[in-house]
Every structure is written in structure tokens, then in C-alpha cells.
Amino acid sequence: MKGISFKIIDNKIIIKSKGRMCETAEELISSALFIEILKNAIDNLLERKSVLLDVFGEEKPNKKNIKLLRKTFEFLCKMPGHLVPKVVNGSEMFFNNTHLFNDFVEYLYNFWRGFDRFVICDSADEILVKRPYRTFNDTIERLNHLVRATYRDLQENITEKHPSIYRQVIAGAEVATIALSKDSFSPREPYNKLNKVLVIRQVLLYPPLVLNPPMNKRTGRFEKIDLNPLQNIDVNENEWLCYPAKVGPLLILIYFHETFFELGFSLCNLFELA
């Protein structure tokens, strides 16, 4: 997908979008993020020596059969499972035990949902900011529906049965923001390092929201220094966001690193967005 990038940091996934998100199950399954999640999920199963790896038959997961599995998923979204081996050569091994294959898909879905998921919509020329609800609806809501629909299509085509009870959960992003690049500080050094950092304009949350921020245990003590800390660091604008907080009569620009996105986005529960 053009204009889409992602980063996996510990237990969170950060997706940055400058254009449209995936719109079909085929686009989703062929995306770089899906392939990365699939590989990580299989690596996790290998560490645990899980019985779910038996979906690969007597072979161990490798680059070739993981690619075959992804291709099988593409067709499995469109047709019943018993027809897929007639189209995808070699995929019959995945259907030797449909109950196990169904459990594997369930595990993959839960593995994805186990991450804290953030989406940053980069608004060029303030286009997305003018209609934030439409932006969120066309990107985040669509992604949420697409991931959930793809998961259900896979399971229903494997089992060739429809569930009696549907449980609606957040399957896409849990937190999303529309942000734009604007000169938030004066051109004076060293503050001009912050000028290219994206500034948050709107935030979308799906409550109840439970995030697991990284531990931040400090040791030692704070000491006064003679230099501005900004003079000693390089700011990568792709790793930071700015939350402009309205605190009484004051405007406070709060910059937070992607490592602490969980804490940074929670600011919207404390301070009004200026």
C-alpha cells in the first residue's frame, strides 16, 4: 500500500498513513504488515513448540510454506475450504485437520489483537483535518471492519459453518489521530529541531481502552545543567508527536516519543486539545 508504513515496538504497532488504508481482504492479506504479523506469530509458536504448527504437516515452517499459507488465506476469503486445494497447489496439507486450522486462524487473530495498535493519519495541507469524522470513518472504521470481516470469512470458509453468536470487538486500531506538520516553534535554535514534528489535531479512542505503557523507573537524581537539553540531542521527527494542551490560560506543547505513545495519547483524558 502506497503511503502506508508501520513499526512494531515491543507490544505496540504504529501505523502511519498518508493515503487510503486497505479496502479488501486481498489487499490486507498481501500487505507487508500482515506478512510480518504472520511471521512473528509463527515464531512465537515455534518458541512454545505449539501443536498448532501441525497445520504445516510434517514440515517445519519455512519461507516457502509460509508464503503458501498466505496465498491460501487469499483464496480462503473468497471460497469454501474444500475448493481451495483445487486452486492453490500444495495447500491441501492445511485442510487435513480443519479444527486445527481453524484454531490457528483464531490464534493469529488474537495475536494481532494482543498488540496496542495506533494509527497516525498524516494530514498533508490540512485536508484530513477539515473533515475529521469522515477521515476516521474512511480509515479507522473501515480497517476495523475489514480485519474482523476477514477473520470471520476465513473461519467460516474453513468450517463451512456460520457462528450462532457474534462478538463485536475492536479488531483494527484502538487509538488513532489526525496530525499535521506545522511550525510549532520559532525558528530560533535549538527549538527549530521540533518544527517538523507532527502536531495532533484530532484523536479517536475506542473505550474501554486498556494499554500497557512501558515501565519508567528512574534512578539517581535530577541535576541542574547549564545547557538546554535540546542542544545535545537529535530529534527524529518520524518518532515524535506533539500534543498541544490547553491548560487554563496556557498553551503547553507536549512532545512525546513513540516509545511512550500509550502515555502520550492518554493526555487527551487530562487536558483539552488546543
Summarize the structure in words.
It is a single chain. This protein has helices at 25-29, 32-48, 63-76, 98-113, 127-130, 132-159, 261-265; strands at residues 4-9, 12-17, 116-122, 175-181, 198-205, 240-247, 250-257, 272-273. By secondary structure, the chain is α/β, with parallel strands linked by helices. It has a domain at 4-159. Strands 1, 2, 3, 4, 5, 6, 7 and 8 form an eight-stranded mixed beta sheet that branches. β1 (4-9) and β2 form a beta hairpin. α4 packs antiparallel against α6 (132-159). The radius of gyration is 22 Å and the shape is elongated.
Regions with little confidence, pLDDT below 50 for 5+ residues:
none
Q: Give the C-alpha Rg.
A: 22 Å
Count every beta strand, where a strand is a DSSP E run of 2 or more residues. 8
Largest sheet: 8 strands, mixed
The first-to-last residue Cα distance is: 32 Å
Compute the average pLDDT.
89
Helix content, binned percent: 25-40%
H and E string: EEHHHHEHHEEEEHE
Shape: elongated
Report the sheet-strand fraction.
15-25%
Helix count from the secondary structure assignment: 7
State the secondary-structure class.
alpha/beta
Quick recap of the structure?
The chain has about 270 residues and is of the alpha/beta class. The chain is about 30% helix and about 20% strand.
List the helices and strands and how they pair.
Layout: E1 4-9, E2 12-17, H1 25-29, H2 32-48, H3 63-76, H4 98-113, E3 116-122, H5 127-130, H6 132-159, E4 175-181, E5 198-205, E6 240-247, E7 250-257, H7 261-265, E8 272-273
Parallel strand pairs: 2-3, 3-4, 5-6
Antiparallel strand pairs: 1-2, 4-5, 6-7, 6-8
